[in-house]
């Protein structure tokens, strides 16, 4: 079986990849400039496949699918609705594709699926008693709605001259550089807000909604409490502080909105046929959903390694996590007695 080449199953049937969670050779000491350059241009690397994919969708979203900037100056219901429908369509197609292939067609059954169980269809902790329906509800009724509000509000300020915009013809180099650096900003912002919402009062108020997905599927990606969505999409507020192009806002928000789908797919690899498959790099965040207190970052910056919260999927990491959890449980029991 293709799966056996890449990982093993535990006694409980959980799939554990042989590949360890690791980082690109960019933030290493001593510096390794040749390896770093190779990584930037290789596949998978900095640009391909995912970064340029999200940049491309973001640029299409602004230049081909969004109303012109002047329409945001005097907002009408048509402008607002067209932005909401555009964003909903992107989410529906992208998340729907993962869900359809892996969870409706079950095209590869549980091959490469970390948790052998399928999403819960009869659990009181989820709205409608169904994990997937609950996630889809939160995605559209809170996620896409708040994303759209951020997009419209920032562009309203820009269209009314309250923010400084760049001219594409005069600042092409700046435009390209900024668009290609959005990935770094998103990684850093996600880590910072993620650490913040794990602070107990905020966790109990908001982030625990997302963490109901101990066994995540693609629709878990944007399934968050509205308060968490406000923190999450605040990545677009960066552009209040320096001159920008509307496409920066759209690409940043598209990156934030679409990238959680593969990250929460629940599968390590997607099979294209019996012999071939490709990695979707979801193990680090799967471990975060399983153990809560590790892998807060999800990207190319080695923040968890720097701050001692990396779970790399090794036996040593699993043992460390088990020790930590049993100590925590003992503390809880002794506090109660
Ligand atoms: Zn998550
Ligand atoms: Zn979390």
Report on this model:
There is one protein chain. With 337 residues, the protein is mainly alpha-helical. It has one domain. The protein has 13 helices and four strands. The strands form two sheets. A two-stranded antiparallel ribbon has the order 1-2. The chain has a two-stranded antiparallel ribbon with strand order 3-4. Strand 3 and strand 4 form a beta hairpin. Helix 4 packs antiparallel against helix 5, helix 5 packs antiparallel against helix 9 and helix 6 packs across helix 9. It is globular and about 60 Å long. The site of one zinc ion has 5 residues, from loops.
How are the secondary structure elements laid out?
Elements: H1 2-6, E1 7-9, E2 15-17, H2 33-41, H3 50-65, H4 77-104, H5 131-159, H6 172-197, H7 200-210, H8 226-233, H9 246-258, H10 260-263, E3 269-271, E4 277-279, H11 283-291, H12 303-306, H13 315-336
Antiparallel strand pairs: 1-2, 3-4
Helix pairs in contact: 3-9, 4-5, 5-8, 5-9, 6-9
